[in-house]
Amino acid sequence: MLFEILIAILLGVTAGIFTGLIPGVHINLVGVLMLSSSAFLLQYFSPLSLALFVVAMSVTHTFLDAIPSIFLGAPDSGLELSVLPGHKLLLQGRGYEAVFLTVIGSFFAVVVCLAITPVMIPLIRYGYPIIEPYIAYILIFFSAVLIAREVKSRFWALVVYLLSGTLGIAVLTMPHLEQPLFPMLSGLFGVSILFVSLMQKTRIPEQRITYPKLDVKEVLSYLGLGTFASLLVGTMPGLGSSQAAIISSSIKKKNKPENFLIMLGSINTIVMIVSFIALYVIDKARNGSVVVISKILGEFNFGYLVLFLIVSLIVAGIASFLALKISRVFSNFMGKVDYRKLCMSVISLIIILVFILTGPLGLLVLIVSSLLGITTSLLGIGKNHLMGCLLLPVILFFLL
Amino acid sequence: MNEIVLLRVSLIFSLIGILILFMLTYELKVKLYEINSLSKDNIDDVVRVKGVIESFAETPGLYLITLSDNTGKMTVVIFKDEKIPLQKNLEIEIIGSVVEYKDKIEIIAKQIVI
């Protein structure tokens, strides 16, 4: 049994490397594939090993998905905002450092989660019913703060927020579109950034392996903020890392890219772990991986939760090591390739993946989202206003 | 092309694009079927059916509903993410895919409107 579990974890880590590194292959997609093949897989593996495979894959994914978003500008859901500070560091030749920062965030997130689980359980159990009726107002408040903080033009920030929100509503309610987030987020935060880089003839300088100088107090305050925001949204339906990032970034006034990257790394991982805890405490599945786990395991008890947390910690260690190794390879590679060609290849790859996964309708969504993303870049306002595409639909869902 | 022109072009086309997407969302509304008009030819199709709940059963992972309209009845499976306030004789609309189970067709629900 122990051997089978170890194999399951190792295979999960391997699968997580792929889902994390390939833009567009979201963990939910692999989850759905697993669920549909679970009848077959269960003939050979125990439900627990399959569930641990999903846990290992999900946690590894949250460590590695920063690499394509920082080096290639092709973000995964929840890491859209990391493109911006990540890109900033990449343009200074510090791409490796950017990944290093998200890994620090992710790793300490697991440690913090483990340490505060005894507090989180009652907090989720009693806090969730109190907060749920107000979540729409909380999100409206943070959206307003975000727009009010725009230095360049509040008017355009509002317009972009509302336009992306309208786009989000159309895309998320569209029938016959199986993976609506992939073309939308790739357009808003991926293709558009790459296109503008091409247009402005951005040059990526030679990458150096540098390490950040961090102020422990500041880092801890960002980790705390990330944990708070993740807890707030991790238990709510339809909310995830993206909303947590908006909440925490609108609380802190000046976000140094270094601290912001640590916070984003932590949020992404905490939201995943909080969703395991939420499954145990309030019996609700909050993301694709947890849906798979709950369906494979049936009843989810405290023993499972403890095992999942321990496995998350072990996987976090392995995934940190892997993320840093792989990011070194990317770093060396970036110095040697023609960035123009790389941008065009990544744009082509996104177009092909969108077409394969979502068909012609997805391609249309990708084009419209890219145009809106380009408009935002050219207006010179923060790309975080484009998060309206996920915030506005959720606000309306809770209000109506 | 200078940036101002590009800005105008991208703004106008994103507006038009969002409008088109909205119209498509409305136009592509999943087709409404009467229950007895569904057959094994519809397997894997996404369909919309409207009817009343004749009976339902709840297991830890899913709800099993017997849905009936004027033309017949069929089983609808809903995977449980949230507790749904189901009751007998309640009129509901289901969007889901048609599957075959034990030589009969049933619908795996994706969206439920109560």
Structure notes:
The complex is a heterodimer of chains A (about 400) and B (about 110). By secondary structure, chain A is mostly helical. Helix content of chain A is about 80%, strand content about 0%. Chain A has helices spanning about 1-20, 25-35, 40, 45-65, 65-70, 85-90, 95-130, 135-150, 155-170, 180-200, 215-235, 240-250, 255-280, 290-295, 300-335, 340-380, 390-400. In chain A, helix 4 (about 45-65) packs antiparallel against helix 14 and helix 11 crosses helix 12. Chain B has two domains: about 1-30; about 30-115, Nucleic acid-binding proteins (OB fold (Dihydrolipoamide Acetyltransferase, E2P), Beta Barrel), CATH 2.40.50.140. Chain B has one helix at about 5-25; strands spanning about 30-35, 45-60, 60-70, 70-80, 90-100, 105-114. The relative contact order of chain B is 0.18. At the A-B interface, helix 9, helix 14 and helix 16 of A face helix 1 of B.
Identify the most extensive interface between protein chains: A-B, 29 and 25 residues
Beta-strand share of residues of chain B: over 45%
- Strand percentage of chain A: under 5%
Largest sheet of chain A: none
Q: Report the structural category of chain A.
A: mainly alpha
CATH T-level fold name of the largest domain in chain B: OB fold (Dihydrolipoamide Acetyltransferase, E2P)
* Structural shape of chain A: globular
Tell me the distance between the termini of chain A: 49 Å
The number of distinct helices of chain A, counting runs of at least 4 residues, comes to: 17
Q: Structural class, from helix and strand content of chain B?
A: alpha/beta
Which percent range fits the helix content of chain B? 10-25%
SSE run of chain A: HHHHHHHHHHHHHHHHH
Amount of helix of chain A:
over 70%
CATH architectural label of the largest domain in chain B: Beta Barrel
Largest sheet of chain B: 5 strands, mixed, barrel
